[in-house]
Amino acid sequence: MSLGIFFIGLPFILSSALGYKFSRHTLKFTKTGLIFIKTQPEGAKIYLEGKLISQRSPASMQDLAPGVYKVALELAQHYPWKGEVDVEAGKVSRLDKIILFPLRPNLVRLNRDQLSSFRIDAQSKLIYYLDQLNRVVYRSDFAANNFEDVASLPQGFTQISGWEISADRKKLFIFNQRQISVIFFDNQGDYGYPDASVFWDYTQEKVINVFWHSDNYHLVVLTDKHVQVVEARGQSKPLNLVELNKEATSAFYDVKEDTLYFNDSQNLYKLELSSNLFLLERLMAQQFQAVKPEQKQNTNE
Amino acid sequence: MNKKIFLKRTLEIIPGGLSWGIIVGLIFLSIKYPVACAIIIITFDFYWIIRTVYLTTLLVMAHNRLFRLRREDWLKRCAVLPKNQGFSELYQLVIFPVYNEGLEVLQPSLSSLSASHYPKDKFIVVIAFEERNIHAQDTALALEKEFSAKFGACLFTFHPDGLPGESRTKGANATWSAKSAKKFIDSRGIAYERVIVSCFDADTCVDPEYFGCLSYHFLTSDKPHQASYQPMPVYNNNIWQAPSFARLVEISSSFCQLIESMRLEKFVTFSSHSMSFKTLVEVDYWPTNMISDDSVIYWKGYLHYNGDYRVVPLYVTVSMDVAYSSNIWKTILVQYKQKRRWAWGVENFPFVVDGFIKNKHISMFHKLRRSFHLLESHVTWAVWAFILVVIGYLPILFGGAFFSSMTIAYNLPKITGLLFQFTLLTSLTWIFLSWTILPPRPKGVSWIKNVLLVLEWIFVPFIILIVGSLPALDAQSRLMLAKYMEFNSTLKGDKVL
Hey, is the C-beta of B28 within 8 angstroms of any chain A C-beta? Predict the structure, then answer.
């Protein structure tokens, strides 16, 4: 009997697996296709040619004659999804990357007071808020709880064009075209750092970008004329590493490798600032006229 | 190479060649023609679902029969048989071939024999030692002191090592001892027709009703000398002490034997079994150079009686030890080696086919049928776990984007999943039945062990691959490469069997 079941059942199992459908009317097998639908979130109603096919996604629709089908997906409190799917004989049409977006997105205001800009510390799951109006930097966790002020911005420092928290989360720098300042967080209790802010004025050149070195002590400064490093302490003088003939237009600092990438209108440059502090490499072209490493230490007052 | 050797080697290569051909062929297909491979896998999955349901049904029926008959007073039924059936003149020759087992193994076996619900004066017990076993004499003396008065006769034989034409096998020892017993039987003037011989593994503890049941079936059978009598082996001796892995394997082995008892057309003797002594002498005893003496003796009878020979299932149990060792890895190794030895039964195939070629009286239909069954059972044993556990997923792995876009690629895992659901369903039946054949939990064994007995079934997919197909493939490969196996004892807990 089991052999009988096997030989009778096998053609149906195999034909079904291969996508064939047996018609009792014509007594013929026809090759069909399959649609597989997976949504995020799951549980959407699936309509095929306007007819409810499944109450919950993910689901598959088998034994479909080849052709183009209209598919609609509906989930309460979410935008519906509509589209057309081409079904081929013996093939699976997969709609498995559909995201159904909520009708009312979960938009939550996070900041406590005024806000000019923010930084995310993904590692510590903290948000830092820069409030220029009240001249303060404060922070909270990702759920906008546990607000606390971490630093006060120095008086007279206006038009902040960039800022960044150091990786040790003890200080931040702010800069504009003519000034850089390092501000130490309140109540750090760290003997090695002063509580007062440190300033550097740039009267002869324009600050384009500033980065934290991986040691959290040096700043890497890109001006229109130089690439500099400066220690984050009072009275420290910037050290010009490279003199630029052309103004840099954009820059990226790889903290892991302590490498600065920057470009002018013609070339992209790479400057390693770790063990080989003064090594400059041109990545795109050998144009020594564009960049001249300094022969001696220059200071910029 | 002469014709005889060519035929022998060809027949030895066929099972392993087929098994490897199927495995390698399917791997090749899964890479080159994944659709074709998927079709074969789905066919096999469907076959396996039907087979699982069929075998589980047989198991339930056999289990039901075992439970119905296990409390039967067989001796009483023998006693009421007509006198001309000759129950009062029937003798039980019981042979225990001993490899290097000691008193701790043999004492429980002989104690269970002495507790049999059967006239003890009708027992001729032979403890068959290997002469090379240095402890044999001491063990024999201790056993003689304890048991010789409990049976009609208690003989101790010592099989010399290295006799011409012999390998170091259990069959060689059993044959030597049976020939010694023959001299004893002749000296007492007992007709061979009135003697039933039972060849038991050294750790076999018989059910008290076993010999009554055996005698009843022997005396009431049509052509009793043209049959072997097979009890149901269970591994209850140390089942509460054995680790889950080993216990599960042995319970499955018991169940397989129960299932086989329902398929008489394929039923072959296994492990401890009984038969007419007259037939044993006529077929020239057990083979002395083959490991699978337990099944070869059936085939010798089958060939001798031109196909008119069968195995009669006896629904009483004989209990043996679970093979295990001190830790899980050693247990896996012990189980692996034991199952490889069982799988070495594939050596029956060349033996049987060669016998069929020489025999002109068995019909071609029966020759083909029995040869096919034998070959199919061994090849299936070697490949089924590979197909279900490994190869079933290869087309999806190797099929690439084109195969993934096809309906069959979508349906293949669904059908394989269905197969595992079915397996789970049948496992529940097996779990329940396994509980019913357990001996009572000994004092000092925690009730948690009962819970473990259920939970251990989650190891099934892991176990089927390790002790399912691999040992069989190993055995077939050895036969294929003419690397013949020799008998080795199996470690069972702290005993060596």
Answer: no
Task: Convert the pLDDT of each residue in A174-227 to its tens digit.
Answer: 999 999 999 998 755 554 455 678 999 999 999 999 999 999 999 999 999 999
Q: Which residue of B has its CA nearest to A63?
A: B407
Q: State the pLDDT at residue B107.
A: 94
Give B202 to chain A, closest Cα distance, Å. 39
DSSP string, B163-223: -TT--S-HHHHHHHHHHHHHHHHHHHT--GGGEEEEE--TT-EE-TTHHHHHHHHHHHSSS
- Nearest Cα of chain B lies from the Cα of A13 at a distance, in angstroms, of 8
Interface test with A, best of B39, B262, B407, B416 (most A CBs within 10 A): B407
Please tell me if residue B409 touches chain A, with a CB cutoff of 8 Å.
yes
Contact B372/A at CB under 8 A = no
* Chain B residue at shortest CA distance from A5: B50
State pLDDT tens for residues B118-134. Answer: 999 999 999 999 999 89
ipTM entry: 0.70
Q: Considering CB atoms only, which of B50, B405, B412 is closest to A2?
A: B50
Measuring CA to CA, which residue among B128, B130, B123 is closest to residue B148?
Answer: B123
Fold of A18-99: Immunoglobulin-like (2.60.40)
Task: Delimit the domains of chain B by residue range.
Answer: 3-66+370-496, 71-364
Q: Calculate what percentage of chain A has a pLDDT beyond 90.
A: 57
Can you tell me whether residue B99 is helix, strand or coil?
A: coil
CATH 3.30.70.260 fits A144-293, yes or no: no
User: What's the pLDDT at A294?
Assistant: 47
Q: What distance in Å separates the CA atoms of residue A87 and residue A67, rounded to the nearest whole number?
A: 5
- How many A-B residue pairs are in contact by the CB < 8 A criterion? 54
Domain B71-364 listed as CATH 3.40.50.2000: no
Q: Spell out the residues 6+ positions from residue B421 whose beta carbon is closer than 8 angstroms to its own.
A: none
Domain ranges of chain A: 18-99, 144-293
User: In this predicted model, which residue has the larger pLDDT, A162 or B49?
Assistant: A162
